[in-house]
Design goal:
The structure is a single chain. It contains seven helices and 13 strands. It is α/β, with parallel strands linked by helices. Helix 1 packs across helix 6 and helix 4 runs parallel beside helix 5. The chain is globular and about 55 Å long. This is 4-hydroxy-tetrahydrodipicolinate reductase. InterPro entries: DapB_C, DapB_N, DapB_N_CS, DHDPR_bac, NAD(P)-bd_dom_sf.
Length: 243
């Protein structure tokens, strides 16, 4: 059986890579897609700028303003949702929790398994009593949100209840963690974490060579999530299922 996937944000950087990967996928295909209002984007044999009620699952890489409509459609059609849209508000996350009572939902800032393994490592770092943590995230010039959702998630693995504050257009602080955003060239994504205490310095760097890593991750997760019961799932749930 071929998995039918709806893609919200199909004309975006990740959306187009989802389409390219699914063209060579023997077990899944693009059923339909959503693009920005008034967009002239089109793909041969794929219906865009419309919802399809017979998609088996939706993958969302849209915008915070479009997200609510996507989520509502998934609830109404009882369709599972994988969302990687960043810049979501606290209200959006409450809506995701409510939606999970009716459908399977997985929301993540990054679909690279390696990044999520780093998150698990950072969750344990507080045991080393860090006195200083700096996170630098570098992305392509087209990425609008700052700091990246991944940088925020990494920081919250160390300070779960930290509040993000803006210092200036490129510098932020979450509790006592410094976060710097850089936008340059066509970089897929680099996250550098520098941690320091009295006795040692730890440096961790993850560099994505291509955005395909995020698109392929979302497809793999969609194939797993589509058979799960309604609920709110995490990348950790998915990674555990692989063992």
């Amino acid at each position: 059986m071929i998995l039918k996937i709806g893609i919200a944000g199909i004309s975006g950087r990740i959306g187009q890579r989802l389409v390219a990967l699914l063209q060579d996928d023997e077990t899944a295909q693009v059923k339909c897609g959503l693009v920005a209002k008034n967009s002239r984007f089109s793909i041969k044999d794929i219906e865009v700028n419309t919802y399809c009620n017979d998609a088996d699952i939706w993958i969302d890489f849209s915008t915070p303003s479009a997200f609510e409509t996507v989520l509502r459609h998934c609830i109404e059609t009882k369709t599972p949702l994988v969302t990687g849209t960043t810049g979501l508000s606290k209200k959006h996350f409450i809506e995701i929790e409510n939606a999970a009572q009716h459908i399977a939902v997985l929301s993540a800032s990054n679909f690279a398994i390696s990044i999520n393994l780093i998150q698990n490592l950072l969750s344990s770092y507080t045991q080393l009593s860090p006195s200083k943590v700096n996170i630098t995230e570098t992305h392509h010039i087209h990425k609008a949100d700052k700091p990246s959702g991944t940088a925020i998630t990494l920081a919250r693995n160390i300070k779960p209840h930290g509040i993000l504050k803006k210092i200036d257009s490129n510098n932020f602080i979450l509790d006592d963690i410094n976060i710097k955003s850089i936008r340059t060239g066509e970089i897929a994504g680099i996250h550098q974490i520098d941690m320091d205490n009295e006795f040692e310095t730890i440096n961790i760097c993850h560099s994505a060579k291509t955005p395909k890593i995020f698109a392929q991750g979302a497809i793999d997760i969609a194939k797993w999530l589509v058979v799960q019961q309604p609920g709110l799932y995490t990348m950790s749930d998915y990674i555990e299922s692989l063992s």
